[in-house]
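Hi R.,

Here's the chain you asked about this morning:
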Amino acid sequence: MADETRTIAYICPSCRQSVIVERSVFQLAATPNELPCPCGKSALRVEMMGDRIRLDVPCIYCGKTHAVTCSSRDFLHRRGLAFSCGASGLDCCYVGEETTVYGAVRRLEEAVDKLDAQAGERGSFLDEVVMNEVLGELKDIAQRGGISCSCGSKRWKLQVNYSSVDLICADCGGDLRIPAATQSDIEDICCKQSLRIHGKDC
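And here is the predicted structure, written out as tokens:
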């Protein structure tokens, strides 16, 4: 267990640089962890509390710190987890395997560049064109019967956020986040013939 590691990342709302750190499971379990930005103006805090993990995450969108929790099992074993700003749906933190987290941060950096370019002119979505393309691709996949959950269900709901779309299993409540902010998000969804929601009990 001591050799297992988790990569944790966020973008500092003050200096707007990515903060990406790796921690062993042992380090995470031993004591609450504070993961500061080198600029010294923000820090992400992680604390293990039995079978739950609490994170206090600085948010690039609203500048506040969001308190989020998830199961220890998901935090320690899922390939990738995303935590989002409740006001915008824009991701503010990633946890998981190194390659998954680095890929997600790259996409978030592109989204933040768009956000900065639009300063003061925010619409319903970070990028209307990208959102419409992603929703169109999701509709095509759904019409082919290509959306299912690992719990076995084919019933799902859609939640459209500021820069992403969540597919939520109608039976177990598991979810799958589809980024919808950048050109690379369109390219990613166009390559998929099917989508599998990660069931809550799977």
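One quick note: The mean pLDDT is 89.

Cheers,
M.
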